[in-house]
Amino acid sequence: MSARRLFFAIGLPEPLPEQLVRWRAQQFPEEAGRPVAAANLHLTLAFLGEVSDEKAQGLQRLAGRIQQRAFTLDLDDAGHWPRPGVVWLGCRQAPRGLLQLAEMLRAQAARSGCHQSPQPFHPHITLLRNATRPVALPPRNFHWQFRVDHFSLYQSLFSQGRTRYRCLQSWPLQEMP
Ligand code: 2AM
Fold first, then answer.
1. Is residue 95 part of a domain?
2. In terms of CB atoms within 10 Å, which of 30, 80, 81, 87 comes out highest?
3. How far apart are CA 146 and CA 131, in angstroms?
4. How far is the CA of 47 from the centre of ligand 1 (A)?
5. What is the pLDDT of residue 172?
6. pLDDT confidence band for 41 (50 / 70 / 90)
7. 8 lines ligand 1 (CB under 6 A)
8. Does 8 map to a domain?
9. 3 C-alpha to center of ligand 1: Å?
10. Band of the pLDDT at 1, cuts 50, 70, 90?
C-alpha cells in the first residue's frame, strides 16, 4: 500500500515569499542555518505523517466540511528554537480563526490515527533549518500582513537531496457577507 507524507498548511501569497527571502538574506548571516527555499515557505496547520491513500481521502472529506471564516495574518514576530534548529516567523497574537482551523484539523487528524504532537500549537513559518547555534534575531521592526482565504493539503517529496512540497488540494475559508 502506498503512503505519502502529508500536512495541512497555509501557503504564502505572491510576492511575499520573495520579499521574505530578501529580508532573511539581509538579517541572517549564511552560517546561521540552511535557508528554506521561497517556494517551500508555509505555515503548517497539522502535520499528518505518512498517510495511506484511503486515510488521506477520509481526511480530505473531513477538511471539506470545515466551515471557517477567513482571517488576516500579521507576521510580526520571530524566534529561534535551538533544539530542532529552527528560526521562524510568526505572529505576536495569533488570530482566533487560525487557532480554530488548526485545532479542527489536528483533532480530525488525531481521530484518524495520525499522531499529533502533545506540544501546544505555535503557528510559525520556518525560515532557517539546522540553526542549532545561537542566532541574533532581527529587531522587531518588521511587519507583513496577508489575508488567509484558503488552506491546503501538501505532500512532502524528497528527491536528489531536496525537499519539495506539492499542493494536492485547497479549501476556501468564508469571507464575511
Ligand atoms: P517545521 O517547519 O517546524 O519543521 C512539513 O514537514 C511541515 O510539517 C514543516 O513545516 C514541519 O514543521 C511540520 N511538522 C510538524 N511536525 C512534524 C514532524 N513530526 N516531522 C516533520 N515535519 C513536521
1. yes
2. 87
3. 27
4. 6
5. 98
6. very high
7. no
8. yes
9. 17
10. low
What confidence category does residue 79 fall into, taking pLDDT thresholds of 50, 70 and 90?
A: very high
Q: How far is CA 139 from CA 4, 77, 136, in A?
A: 39, 10, 9
Note whether residue 146 is domain-resident: yes
Q: What is the DSSP secondary structure assignment for residue 32, as one 8-state letter?
A: G
pLDDT in tens, 119-138: 999 999 999 999 999 999 99
| Domain of residue 133, residue span | 3-172
The CATH number of whichever domain residue 38 belongs to comes to: 3.90.1140.10
Report whether 123 contacts 67 (CB < 8 A).
no
If one residue of 20, 44, 106, 132 were mutated to test the ligand 1 pocket, choosing by the most ligand atoms within 8 A of its CB, it would be 44
- Is residue 143 annotated as a catalytic residue, yes or no? no
Q: Is residue 158 part of a domain?
A: yes
Confidence at residue 177, expressed as pLDDT on a 0 to 100 scale: 74
Residue 80 among the catalytic residues: no
pTM: 0.96
Q: How many domains does the chain have?
A: 1
